[in-house]
Automatic annotation (TrEMBL):
<dbReference type="InterPro" id="IPR051918">
    <property type="entry name" value="STPP_CPPED1"/>
</dbReference>
<dbReference type="Pfam" id="PF00149">
    <property type="entry name" value="Metallophos"/>
</dbReference>
<dbReference type="InterPro" id="IPR029052">
    <property type="entry name" value="Metallo-depent_PP-like"/>
</dbReference>
<protein>
    <recommendedName>
        <fullName>Calcineurin-like phosphoesterase domain-containing protein</fullName>
    </recommendedName>
</protein>
<feature type="domain" description="Calcineurin-like phosphoesterase">
    <location>
        <begin position="3"/>
        <end position="203"/>
    </location>
</feature>
<dbReference type="InterPro" id="IPR004843">
    <property type="entry name" value="Calcineurin-like_PHP"/>
</dbReference>
<dbReference type="GO" id="GO:0016787">
    <property type="term" value="F:hydrolase activity"/>
</dbReference>
Amino acid sequence: MPIRLIHVSDTHLSATHGYFTDNWRAFKADMAAAPPDALIHGGDLSFNGPVAEPDLAFAAAEMASLGIPHRVISGNHDIGEAPAFSRLKQPINAKRIAAWTKNFGAQYWHWDLGDWRLIGIDTALLASGLPEETAQMDALREMLATRGKRPVMLFMHMPPFDKDPDDPARTTSVIPHPARAPLLDLCAANGVKIIACGHLHIYRRLRHRGMEIVWAPATAMVDVARGLRQRRRFPRPGYVEWLLDGPRATHRLVEPERMFVIDMTRWTHSHGFTVTGLPPREPA
């Protein structure tokens, strides 16, 4: 029997800033109606976890309430960003790592599911210069080396690149250039068949060196103008459903009809391109 795996990302949950609660409830309704075999959350579980640990605790409780076997990886709204690439001035540090591990456990992990090895890593560590960056890369090499014949699906929050993997431009949208080539070289040489990411709140598919790269959409807000301008696609909230059938993996985009298109760009353009300054709003 194929294994049904859900990849959801960028939920931005909070008990005090419940702007995206309705879409999360629609997702929970889908999961209750047809529970998958497993679920991966691809990061930005929380609204503003780097400075509000209660957001992390709330998101962890919501994940547990699904009652589905799951793993999670952190996003920049959970644990911060690589210090030299910190757009929100929330650099990853020991305190933020401790808050994450307290609420969710390890920053990186592997999970053998059917014929596949699933691996999750923390993209905030990449190009961070922290000792934890070296530890994560060593662990990734070990997880890849011990996979046997299993193909690998790698989950990470930030996409590896946009259009050009060799683009050296400074960015907070994709993995910083200094860390990009070593990661992609390691993946391409060691059985990674799929890279599943999120962060940019839009669904997209790429192929690179024999690897399929699939961007999960957000369940939270979208940027309609950017989606139409850059991708010629109207961005909608949703998630990705994978079917793992032996060594074969296929996926489909799911855009639930009960999820609302929430475009916060009027706010973000006026407030530093982030929603984290929004006033409190309790979930309805």
